[in-house]
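Internal tracking record. Fields below are filled automatically when a chain is submitted to the structure queue. Please do not edit lines marked as system-generated. If the sequence contains nonstandard residues, flag them in the REMARKS field before resubmitting.
Queue: standard
Priority: normal
Entity type: single polypeptide chain
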Amino acid sequence: MKMRFASPMFLMFAAVFICSLPIRGAAAKPAAKPNFVFFLVDDFGWGALGSTGFDKHETPNIDKLVGRGMAFSDGYAACTVCSPSRAAIMTGAYPGRINLTDWIPGHRGGQPKLKIPTWTMKMDHERVVLPEAMKEAGYKTIFLGKWHLMPLGDEQKKHFPTDHGFDINIGGREWGQPKGPGKYFHPFGMPNVTSEEGDYITDRLTDYAVDFIEENKSAPFFLYFSYYTVHGPIMGKADLVKKYQEKGLQGRAAAYAAMHQSLDESVGRVLAELETAGIADTTYVIFTGDNGPDKNEYAGGLKGIKAQAHEGGVREVFTISGPGIKAGSTSSIPVIGTDFYPTILELAGLSPKPDQHQDGVSLAPILKEGKDIAKRSLYWHYPHYHRTKPYGAVRNGDWKLIEYFEDGRLELYNLNDDQSETKNLAAAMPEKAAQLLNQLRGWRKEVGAQMPTPNPNYDPTRATKKKRKKKQPSK
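SYSTEM-GENERATED OUTPUT FOLLOWS
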């Protein structure tokens, strides 16, 4: 496969040390279908791993995982904030198509220049989502961690993970971050999670994941581990925080590094349990993030952070390993979160559901045969105010265009030459910018993406003020 470009960051991915954990237990009877473990990390930076050259964090287990399968250098989340990105994985459809375009419930208050549309804060039950498709095919399904796909009010009761195809829900509720009395520490205030003094939520969720694998090693399963970490509040375990303080990090940076180590240890424990259960060779493992980090230093030299239209807000670590996927393989083909749904179905030997995952493309030909897929464009739609002004974006080949809805301002970048988006070529290449703008607007019309409208109550003095929301009580 011809690589379009190879950044230092990407070469580091390709050079990850490849190894396997030893099998420590007797092999279980292989399941007729492969198993799936999906690791989704909150606010995860593209450049936050040791394997990508970030020496402030220790992530040996994730580094090894990246080297066990195929690493996509140009892997993207479907949105730069959490709820839409997560819904895109579940539905295989763009947030703009299902009109779930902001984190739930989003910002309210202020009087910005544009009035945001009345968007959807749930996944419709009429649509067959990924865990439902897996369950229909005989898979045991479990959700662990952050859900954040529930509307406000009484209807919330109809949208827990168990209402969307998961047999088991451990920790998933409306929260976008830990809000229980102890936050990341006991007590958690999360569904079906028991704990005791000193427990840390990342570790406790991992306990449940390990137990689930042991109990279901003889039947096909879909384990979706959606970490609360490394989202704020930034809280690491005391011994690890001290460790990183002694290495020279201070304050938030030390706690953040500690959270990454706890994440890495969690991934390592799950992978070790697959080996112990004797099913590592029949299990596909996916690792990615829902959007970029909230600090640019973790974006690997890319411009921007979460919520923003630039690469730092949306490009993600994106790796898949498992049966038939060559260890240490790489791809620079642009891929996106909507692709997981059809990819998992094909890897499981299941029939596609194109009327459901309307925007996803199966990556199995790339993973299994090193083949290319049909050329396509990738799209983002964010008609909201959150660390940014409303925008849309399209990537076509090496080209990326950003359109800001308030004033029509355009930014055009050639990512092959300018991965960090330092040179806006919109003025220098008006024809190219116009071509991509027409394509972006055509896509919005095709999928029915909602657009913001002029705000008749626009007040420049209140445009950026946010109404503080009351804390929601624990359940």
